[in-house]
Amino acid sequence: MNKKKFFVTTPIYYINDVPHIGHAYATFAADILARYHRQIGDEVFFLTGTDENSQKTVQAARKSGKDIVVYTEELATKWQSTWKRLGISNDDFIRTTQQRHKSLVEEIFEKIDKNGDLYKGKYEGLYCVGHEAFLKEDDLDEGLCPDHKTKPDHITEQNYFFKLSKYQKTLLEHFEKNPDFVKPRERYNEVLNFIKSGLQDISVTRETQKWGIPAPNDPTQVIYVWFDALINYISANPSKWPTDLHIIGKDILRFHAVIWPAMLISAGYELPKEIFAHGFFAIDGQKISKSLGNTIDPLKIADEYGVDALRYFLFKEFPFGNDGDFSFDRLKEVYNADLANGLGNLVARVAKLCETANLRFPIRPTNSKIVFDKKYQIAVENLKFQEALNLIWQKTTKADQLIDKTKPWELIKKDIHKTARVLAQLVDEIRVINTHLTPFLPETSEKIRRQFAGPKIKSEPPLFPRKI
Ligand code: MSP
Predict the structure, then answer these.
(1) Which of 125, 264, 274, 291 is deepest in the core (most CB within 10 A)?
(2) Which of 8, 18, 51 has the most ligand 1 atoms within 8 A of CB, as the residue to mutate?
């Protein structure tokens, strides 16, 4: 039987700074799905990478006083090592300065050109480097970009334009035929309304810039960074295309759900199957972004609480897709309640009871078929991570109740056979819980798997030591 394939992507990240917790969010989400799909036996391709041909890279390199090539190498390495430290199981890492990427960008640019979808024109407008996008006068707040608080550059250039307007009707049809093309529903409606309001052609080259991929038909121009960046999803490994799922933040939805599909149709590629836009989180009520300088380093939290605690908190605290707030007080509270007490305590209790009873438990065969709770599967497959975690924690509560009801520490003095049955049931439940934990808490799940592999089960140091 042919394996089902599952190809998932994260956005590729700008390298003007190191990863912050907002970037870790999408990357963890993709990792959860990749691990889940591997568990059910799918052939997974999980792609992430760095978006390097941006003006932000030029500015950041200049600020650091380093040569730009040295700077990009250093930052790309930093991003890769961060994902490694955070246990991200990506199958490839694409950098847009790599040859495999440049070649395909040129090829697609030429295909779109041959298809009659590029023309030269004059562009005059306001450009925000923070967004790497043009802004309208109406978007500004007292002359400044409302997100980056910087004054946009006034640009007058001869550029190549992409006939986005030509694809309005085709895109509308695609949206109407594929109600799950963009999720959640409100984001789908938002994009649909945007397309209905009328699409304008967009400038896809820059005349005054040097850093980037030269336009093949006119080397005096470099290709617009978004036009280049989106192509990473194919250039990493063309044989994997189309992707099953692009995970992105809601701020970059139009690029992915409007411009990207139009480029693909023009160049003759299939469209992505689904685009999911997650929400933004703030820190203690304040917007976080590297441009504003109030970022949280995910590595610091991982060092203090462990990677799994961070993963748990980010997906348990609010639904993926909604906006939320990050607070260190809440992190500690949730850690102590759900991880130190909830899961950690249950595992410790059952292990201790087994150790005291000194019984032998059946070894779980390594090739045994994985059985998931159906509701959990539906939740995970629909990126309802909070719901999936709640289902697991309901199971831990039930297991705790079983211990309280049967009181194995008393039972053992009266009836060893009955005790053995109760403990076997508890061990089985821990194993079931653990199967469901694997995509979310991979490190913890590996520890539990080893501890409960049988035949002898022993106490181990606490999985999540309490924080005071
Ligand atoms: N390079 C582009 C993406 C190109 S994809 C072909 C880019 N990079 S980014 O580094 O600025 O941002 C990457 C992602 O991080 C975006 O999806 C964005 O939504 C996400 N986040 C940045 N700040 C965030 C929060 N505060 N909260 C949640 N996600 C956030 O855009």
Answers:
(1) 264
(2) 51
Helices of type H across 204-361:
225-230, 232-235, 253-254, 260-267, 298-305, 307-317, 328-334, 345-357
Distance CA 466, CA 468 (A): 7
Q: Give 296-338 pLDDT, tens digit per residue.
A: 899 999 999 999 999 999 999 999 999 999 999 999 999 999 9
Q: Are 308 and 31 in contact (CB under 8 A)?
A: no
What is the per-residue pLDDT for 132? 86
Among protein residues, the one whose CA lies closest to atom 12 of ligand 1: 13
Q: Which residues contact 115 (CB under 8 A, 6 or more apart)?
A: 266, 267, 268
Burial profile 252-271: b = 16 or more Cβ within 10 angstroms, e = fewer: bbbbbbbbbbbbbbbbebeb
Q: Which amino acid is at 402?
A: L
pTM exceeds 0.70: yes
24 Cα: distance to centroid of ligand 1 (angstroms): 10
CA–centroid distance, 114 to ligand 1, in Å, is 32
| Pocket, ligand 1, Cβ cutoff 6 A | 11-14, 22-23, 25-26, 51, 229-230, 232, 248-249, 251-252, 280-281, 288-289
Cα(361) to ligand 1 centroid in Å equals: 48
- 57 touches 71 (CB < 8 A): yes
Taking residues 430-443, report their average pLDDT: 97
Structure tokens at 60: 């950041």
Separation of 10 CA from ligand 1 center, angstroms?
Answer: 9
In angstroms, the Cα distances linking 173 to 163, 245, 405 are: 17, 20, 58
Q: Which of 12, 13, 57 to mutate to test the pocket of ligand 1 (most atoms within 8 A of CB)?
A: 13
| Helix, strand, coil in percent for the chain, rounding step 5 | 50, 20, 30
| Phi, then psi, of 203 in degrees rounded to 5 | -75, 130
